[in-house]
Amino acid sequence: MKLQETILCSSAAQLSTVGLGTVALHDLQTGTTLASFKQTNAGPHCTAILESTSTEGGFVLTCQPDKSILNVYHFQKDQISLKIVLPEKLSCIAVDRRGDMCAGGTAQGRIYLWETSSGILYNSWDAHYRQVNVLRFTNDGDALISGSDDSGVNVWSVSRLLDGDLQNELPVPFCTLSDHTLPVTDIVCGVGLFPNCRLLTSSVDHSVKLWDISSKSLLTTFQFPQSISCLAWDITERLFFAASPNGSVHQMNLFRQRESKFGGQVMEALGGAGVTDIIRVGDENDETRKKRLISVGQPVSTLALSLASSLLLVGTTEGLIHIYDIPSHQLLRTISTHKGFSIGYLCTMLKPPDLIGHISLDFTVGNNAADAKDVVPVKPIIPFQRMRDAKTREAHDIAMLLPKPIESPCYDVTAYEEEEFHRDHAFFVKPLLPTHSSETDVSTLKSRVSELEGEVERLREHLGKAKGVNDAIWDTVVKQLVVAKNLSSSEDGDEELARKRSRI
Fold first, then answer.
1. Which segments of the protein form a coiled coil according to its record (predicted)?
2. Long-range contacts of 106-115 (CB under 8 A, 24+ apart)
């Protein structure tokens, strides 16, 4: 199956007279529409997705701003698959990478946590004093991060939220990141397992902050000329993009060049000094600022990066999706299908193998397109509970998809024939230089032995000569020392005799 990168976007109507928005998939290279899911009006941070795989179909969740309804879409249908009635209207939602848990925040600062496969409401608690603006799961799904209008960012351990022994207690966050002074607008989680990961948070206070979760500390503060509404972080954590409502997108590199002690330029990491480390973006010269600034000309509502981090996708409040080349900041193309609406969500993903109207022949689907659900079953979603139910929680009945049996048996590594084993063993332990019994090799070996014996004889002869020279030198030196000593002794005796005669 050919891999094709696509853009999934969610749009919402700015005016009630325009109608409802859509969730659409576009081809990244051409911008053509591949599929469209209607009857939704999701705003920023109100869309969550689970990508499809070759064995399980994914889904799209959108919460509506004017009603307590959650729409569920599957890629195999262009209509709403399920409408879930919620306890109250949600201001943001998030789904973990496996699609097992769904979290929703409200305007009153409350957070709900459901299990998608059973619909069980595991927890609901007052997490913030004001509206929850954004929710994010870490890559491993072990932590939930929430940002609010109260300028606080809380990190919640999912295992503690699911613990049955703590259901009657108010959840306590793993840590609270409280260095922002105005409402938090966006959160991006870095790579790594919780808590060994980092966070980027943006706020209306013109700052973007980089946090280390393991040490619960602030690493660096980036101060921008305008307030920041959304972020996009490279997967390698080399750089990030920060967008302002006025249409400015700033590229911030997390590395820089400096002069080496030995001459030349070397690269070094940027920031990491702590609370006092503040990097002001407006302090660069005009040339550097132009290289890192993209002027969209329209209010920016969301950002996303391509899978290879070579393209930047910018969604605007006027319904346009601009695609920029990151190295050159050149505008490659603009998707204007949703003009007149506001783009609330953007992401890039591989084209779902079970996408309606694009079912691959590799799945051997029959003549009827509806057969796709039999080949790629969808991730089960049960309507969410509106109140916590201890009995349902104890029963905990979950619908799970069993993997499809493989028709062709896998190769068993333990099934190793004895004959084949001995043959392979002989091949690996055989000497590097194979021995031959031909007459040519025997004569060559004999001549080599004779040559070595002659060389040994010559070395012995040279050793004898050297020993003779050494003995001669030794004898000469000893004789010279003995003669010199005798002469010195006779001279001393004559002097002593002369002294005695003088006394007499």
1. 442-469
2. 106/131, 106/132, 107/131, 107/132, 109/148, 109/150, 111/135, 111/144, 111/146, 111/156, 112/86, 112/87, 112/384, 113/144, 113/158, 113/161, 113/162, 114/384, 114/385, 115/398
pLDDT digits (tens, 9 = 90+) for 314-328: 999 999 999 999 999
Unique residue bearing structure tokens 């870490």: 138
H-run or E-run covering 10 = strand 5-13
- Model confidence at 91: pLDDT above 90: yes
* Nearest CA-CA partner of 343 in 92, 38, 23, 106: 23
Predicted TM-score (pTM) of this structure: 0.76
Rg (CA), the chain: 39
Q: Which residues pair with 303 in a beta bridge?
A: 314
pLDDT at position 337 over 70: yes
Alpha carbon separation from 64 to 21, 43, 82, 144, 417 (Å, rounded): 11, 8, 14, 22, 63
- How far is residue 373's CA from residue 482's CA, in Å, rounded to a whole number? 112
Residues contacting residue 144 through CB under 8 Å, at least 6 positions apart: 94, 103, 111, 113, 135, 136, 137, 138, 155, 156, 158, 161
How far apart (Å, rounded) are the C-alpha atoms in residues 209 and 188? 11
Whole-number Å distance between alpha carbons of 303 and 228: 12
Rounded Cα–Cα distance for residues 143 and 356 (Å): 33
Give all strands (DSSP E) within 78-197, no chain letters: 82-85, 92-95, 101-105, 110-115, 121-126, 132-137, 143-148, 153-157, 175-177, 184-189
Is the predicted pLDDT of residue 409 greater than 50, yes or no?
no
Residue 212 pairs in a beta bridge with 198, 217
CB 299 within 8 A of CB 248: no
What's the average model confidence in pLDDT over 445-466? 88
Per residue in 205-225, pLDDT (tens digit) is 999 999 999 999 999 999 999
Query: Over the stretch 170-186, which tens digit does the pLDDT of each residue have?
Result: 999 999 999 999 999 99
Distance of CA 238 to the CA centre of its chain: 11
Determine the Cα–Cα distance for residues 162 and 136; give it in Å rounded to an integer: 17
Q: 68 and 88 in contact (C-beta within 8 Å)?
A: yes
